[in-house]
Design brief:
Layout lengths: L12 H74 L5 H11 L10 H8 L9 H38 L2 H9 L18 H4 L1 H43 L5
């Protein structure tokens, strides 16, 4: 019985090259597709995070305007108080009314959703626009400066509130508390009648007035810082809108 063996023809070198190129092309295309997908995901995150930063800035802008307004009103009220002291027209009821209200303060609390997301995602590396990255860095630096000033003011006004405990008649202080409004710059109502607080302990009242004055004087520096913050905010938000505004929707 005759057995026929199939002859095996070796592949030509061109066939090996073709197979190699096809394999290389398939791997490369897979790599590029995966890389493109990751870039698209990261770009989507970038747009989403910057949209949140934009929303935060809009909230911050409203808060800054509110705090600036309240700080300015309190400075004007303090001027009224000290004009009354200077002209010797101040009454004991005035002392309660002005000092209790001026011990209040408006605090700027920034919204941090977008900035916190960017930080948790690895910092600003995903944001390619240098105007935006530098704007975010400036914005955070001024936030820190404003927080330090607010902490300084709070420590001084806290001492003023402690001083009230030594000079205020407890029944009048209680009357102020139960009759106060929920909101407003001057939310404590003037008492209809009070004890002669100026005559009883003028030195302690003077200390209280100084603490109020020192604390609220910080509002002048805070307003300067907040106006600077506002300019940085508007510039940063404009850069974000120019770069991403058409992609937010």
């Amino acid at each position: 019985m005759e057995v026929h063996h199939h002859s095996h023809h070796p592949k030509k070198w061109k066939e090996y090259i073709t197979e190699f190129l096809m394999l290389f092309l398939a791997v490369s295309l897979g790599f590029f597709a995966e890389n493109l997908r990751e870039q698209q995901i990261e770009k989507h995150r970038e747009i989403s995070y910057l949209k949140n930063v934009h929303d935060d800035l809009q909230l911050d802008l409203n808060t800054i305007n509110t705090v600036l307004s309240q700080n300015t009103i309190r400075l004007r009220v303090m001027d009224t108080l000290f004009q009354a002291i200077k002209s010797n027209t101040i009454t004991s009821e005035d002392v309660y009314y002005y000092t209790r209200n001026l011990a209040l303060r408006a605090t700027f609390e920034s919204s941090h959703v977008g900035l916190d997301q960017i930080k948790s995602a690895g910092g600003l590396r995903m944001v390619k626009n240098e105007e935006i990255t530098s704007g975010i860095q400036k914005y955070e630096r001024t936030l820190d400066a404003i927080e330090k000033l607010e902490n300084l003011r709070e420590r001084t006004l806290e001492q003023a509130r402690f001083k009230m405990a030594t000079v205020f008649d407890p029944m009048i202080a209680y009357e102020l508390q139960i009759n106060q409004a929920e909101t407003g710059v001057m939310r404590f109502k003037r008492p209809q009648k009070s004890d002669p607080i100026l005559q009883k302990n003028r030195q302690a009242v003077n200390e209280l007035l100084n603490l109020i004055s020192f604390g609220l004087n910080t509002n002048r520096y805070l307003n300067t810082g907040l106006n600077k913050q506002k300019l940085i905010l508007l510039s940063l938000d404009s850069a974000i809108i120019r770069e991403y505004g058409d992609k937010f929707h």
